[in-house]
Amino acid sequence: MEESLRYSLMPPVTPYGGELGFLSVGGVLATGGANSRSVTYGLMSDNVARLEVVTGAGETLTCSPSDRADLFFAALGGYGQSAIITQATLELIPAPKNVRVYWLFHHTMQEAIHALRSALAEGIWDQADVLGYQHSYTDAIRAPSPRDGELINTLRLTAFHRESPPDDEALLRNFRSHFSIRIEDVSFRDSLLKKRAFYDLLDREKVRMQGPHRGVAIPDDNMEAFLSALLEKFPLDRVGPYWHVHCVPISGPVGLQTPLFRLPAAESWGVVCPWLGMAQEHSPQASRDLYQLALDNGGMLLGGLTGWPMLPDDWKAYFGPAWNELQRAKHKYDPNNVLQSLTNTG
Question: Residue 281: which pLDDT band, with cuts at 50, 70 and 90?
Fold first, then answer.
């Protein structure tokens, strides 16, 4: 991201953490790469023109949709089964100069999710997501303190612009469920740096993140049921002060093009990324319980975020019809099984 901004350009989609330099481009592409801009631009892996990879057989090869297409599509979202991505040619778009961020604070997650759906229906926001925080994060985002035993549920709406700021009244005319609002103007570059705020907070507090810090994809119709079950299974007094939930929409009219990136079989999607930081319940069983909650609500693993022990049958279920194609590519480009095999995990 930093290098592309030197030319006033940016990737259409950069997953959270990737834009901050915490993730490698190859690592992100090996799992797909989604954020809230995916409703418009698809996955990060959907915006790749060409790859250079090193296969399990030790060959350095280039591939694209028209050249070694089997290798190209096995590398994107394939979890490094056939090859390791060493270089990628990404499509870039003009980067905004400035960002106006609207923080709309709600008493309940259900209210915030409903407002998020309204924002998506408008189709005018550059980014939109929902975050649920405990007390420990409120200073980092300058949010009101939540009521005891509750989260501060925040709808975050982002409008990009270059010179003239957006019309607040026009943009917010349909939003009335929040009890408080904060509006923040920053440069686009500074907006990326500001996302480090809670990471810096954790560093100052010497917090070691543990427990399920993973994502699941949930059908939009089941979002509220899943969130209720999540809070019941992992109540706030058990998971510690640094717990937060991040709800990110990733499907839209454009659709997702990476064959190996899987989503639940429903028309509309929500992505929920629970972070059970400093959890007392950070055992493998707690991770498995989180995964099972997703399955019970029609969900599945969100590509790239495998915080629980995944068994071979779990991977087969995740990839579904694409599993056999992935295995054919592995046998072709990693015949001696040098690279990690998903069938040998446990």
Answer: very low
Long-range contacts of 48-52 (CB under 8 A, 24+ apart): 48/76, 48/88, 48/89, 48/90, 48/91, 49/89, 49/90, 49/91, 50/88, 50/89, 51/75, 51/76, 51/85, 51/87, 51/88, 51/89, 52/85, 52/86, 52/87, 52/88
String of DSSP letters for 311-335: PHHHHHHHHGGGHHHHHHHHHHH-T
CA distance 29 to 268: 23
Is 136 or 154 the better-scoring residue by pLDDT?
154
118 pLDDT exceeds 60?
A: yes
Helix (H, G, I), strand (E, B) or coil at 64: strand
**pLDDT by residue (tens digit) across 284-310?**
677 778 888 989 999 988 765 555 667
The CATH number of domain 98-301, selected from 3.40.462.10, 2.60.120.480, 3.40.50.2300, 3.40.50.360:
3.40.462.10
Domain extents in the chain:
2-94+318-334, 98-301
CATH of domain 2-94+318-334: 3.30.465.10
